[in-house]
Amino acid sequence: MTVTIRPRRDDDLSALGSVLVEQQSASGYPHRDPLPMPGADFVARSGTLATWTADLDGDPVGHIAILPVLDPASSREPELAHLWMTGHGLPAERLAEIGVYFTATHVRGTGVGGALMRTALAELATRDLAPCLDVIPDHAAIDIYRRTGWREVGTTRPSWLSEAAPDVIAMILPRS
Question: Where are the alpha helices (DSSP H) in the chain?
Fold first, then answer.
């Protein structure tokens, strides 16, 4: 098994969309109403700062992106931006969101997700941007985030959240 983390290419989108849909029943991610279909539309976000694909022996099996955090006055989700800014004590332009982060069910527990996260965090450090993310409290990843130093800075209910889902937890990774 050879996993490579590389910049996402346009020709990855179809396979990543399939991976997103495949893993959704097990992870509950994304908690969107309605679920974005096709999944490739959810993966290919405009305005991303950087994106990566986890490639296993030539097949895309995971994805992560870093996205700008917009000032609350212009953000689609001003409360998330406000929580992250307050948590880090920094303006929006000094922050970036980790998002569109998922792995295929069959590679869970193999380190693929961790490799994607390390790649994104290294890029944020290079850009001198403070990391932020949001997570659903019943998602298994929250325990991993807590164990790896992410800190909760509040909860909110974004407009995209499905009605049945609990509020999201805004988290930051304090910079060392």
Answer: 13-27, 39-43, 78-88, 112-127, 141-147
